[in-house]
Specification:
With 316 residues, the chain is mainly β. Helices cover 7% and strands 44% of the residues. A 7-stranded antiparallel β-sheet has the order 5-6-7-14-9-12-17, with no helix packed on it. The protein has a 6-stranded antiparallel β-sheet with strand order 4-24-21-26-19-18.
């Protein structure tokens, strides 16, 4: 069947052109200048989407934290579910760093056209200007997190490649990209970088690991830490003079204290800690309190200071 035409241009071509314009258009996210202290993951609030970035099948997600929640370069913390046989298509963000995390199951991660199967819980970071995709090649619905930080505050973009990565994909035995296993056995105590090592104080019952350091990212994103707080233990108070942090509770329960305010936290809660605030966590439960920590500097100078040899470990 031939396409209808407007001024000599087929409607199908107009639709294709419009889709391409959307694919490369800058993205503007809602600003969240004052985020709630603790944001619960509620699957009932997940919004269904189909063919995300041209990906296979469907998924559902919600924004737990929006732009500005922990600093000017922070774009979002998304949380959702990806059914078996579904995924996020191959695409670029030329102005933002991004990280996909799966908390369970297994998935095919693609960076710059190279694909490998990884088992959760695991995270994969993609620097600005590099392509990435995710496909649920397993049998169970994936619990998924996505985190994004802009190179220039308030600016992001997306360029879709029209590739759902669902079939005919060559799998590498060893990933050719940076991966982060969220295995608690990899965390450690004294001498570790990360939340448990704040200001050089690393209690024996607070373990931490710096999974990604500042050199990994093109933006002001400073690090990703994995921290385990034993039952009855607390992290030292940490001042966030130059680096805001977003926490995601992977397991357990406890409290977070910011300034003089204390709030309960539990599995799958998100916690923003903004610049110029002071925070600490306590485990009030009988199981380890497990935290995924994203640190974002207020500007590039602050991030570079963290990278210099004289920078104190764990100092904010």
């Amino acid at each position: 069947m031939s396409s209808m035409r407007i001024a000599g241009i087929g409607i199908s071509r107009l639709a294709s052109a419009a889709a391409l314009m959307l694919a490369v258009a800058p993205i503007v996210f809602a600003r969240q200048a004052t985020a709630p202290r603790v944001v619960h993951t509620d699957p009932a609030a997940f919004r269904p989407l189909t063919a995300v970035h041209g990906g296979a099948g469907n998924m559902a997600y919600t924004a737990l934290l929006n732009r500005g929640a922990i600093g000017p370069h922070f774009n979002f913390l998304h949380r959702g579910e990806i059914p078996a046989g579904s995924g996020i298509g191959h695409h670029f963000h030329n102005t933002a760093d991004e990280m996909f995390v799966i908390l369970n199951g297994e998935a095919q991660f693609t960076i710059d056209g190279r694909t490998a199967v990884l088992k959760g819980p695991v995270g994969v970071v993609c620097r600005a200007g590099h392509s990435h995709a995710l496909y649920n090649s397993g049998r169970e619905t994936l619990q998924w997190i996505n985190f994004q930080v802009s190179v220039t505050a308030g600016i992001s973009d997306a360029f879709d490649l029209g590739d759902d990565r669902s079939t005919g994909v060559t799998l590498d035995r060893i990933p050719t990209f940076m991966t982060l296993s969220l295995d608690p056995a990899l965390t450690r105590g004294a001498g570790a970088r990360g939340r448990g090592a704040a200001a050089g104080q690393a209690p024996a019952n607070v373990l931490s690991r710096r999974g990604y350091g500042p050199s990994v990212f093109a933006s002001t994103w400073a690090y990703v830490d994995h921290t385990i707080v034993a039952p009855g233990a607390s992290t030292p108070p940490l001042a966030h003079a130059t680096i805001g942090e977003a926490y995601y509770v992977l397991s357990g329960q406890g409290t977070v204290t910011v300034g003089g305010d204390t709030s309960p936290v539990r599995k799958w809660d998100a916690v923003p800690v903004r610049l110029d605030e002071t925070s600490s966590f306590s485990n009030t439960g009988s199981e380890p309190l497990e935290l995924l920590v994203y640190g974002v500097a207020k500007d590039m100078d602050s991030k570079i200071a963290l990278m210099m040899p004289a920078a104190g470990r764990g100092r904010q």
